[in-house]
Amino acid sequence: MPVQKRIYFLIALLVLTSCTSLPLVEEKTNEITGDVVGEGIEVTVNVEDTITIANWNLHIFGKTKASNEELLQSYAEKIRQHDIIFVQEIRDSSATAFLALCALLDGYDCTASSRAGTTQSKEQYGIIYKNTIELLSITDYNPEYATVFERPPVQARFQIGAETLDIVNIHTDPDLVPQELEALDQLIQEEGNSMIIGDLNADCSYYKPAKEPDFDTWTWVIQDTEDTTVASTDCAYDRIILSDQLAPEVNGYGIDTNVTEEQSDHYLVWVELEK
Known about the structure:
alpha+beta, 12 strands, Deoxyribonuclease I, Chain A, 29% strand, six-stranded mixed β-sheet, 5 helices
């Protein structure tokens, strides 16, 4: 990992070592907070002074999965553990699957990006957030940046207490990770409270964060040594990257490994912030 990234992790470590560890079952050391992440995560939510933000690639989420009531309920159960969550790989030309999921989420509002992709497998990003949180604006970079990204990012700005929070969500093309992350680094400015979150495919054979300059002045929350995949691969594809101003607000993070292959081929990743 580049020197700048290591410096920011050391700063985050000094800030966060006084935080209370989250109660978890399967231990796996968190290099930032010293907490453990893994199966049986008990997420600290519904606390007035903190907020949890998550991402979950649902793996080809469309009408077939949405027609499975038990599976749909399992998605909703996990989503309710978080204040704001982005869901990825919505593949449904009828636009009914995401609506069916949102119908199970009382107390939440939902919106989705436009369908993007150069192949027949068009995808959307879903944004789900508690209705007590104000969504100020959405910037959908599709189709303007469709020649730059396979699935152009979406940016959501929220009002969190007295502060605004900008969250950029993207699912990169695994064959074009270096090019797409370089373009994203140029597109998104490190200003204010900003976060990049999503299935970035930023590990293993697709991308080597330690050898690349992208987002070097930002804090990479999910470590290169961690695993966000359900399969036997050991790769940190799913990432959370924070701006310099936002990084000190981290109260903890986690990788929810209690995910079945029926649900997805990716674990859910989340970060908890002080408001």
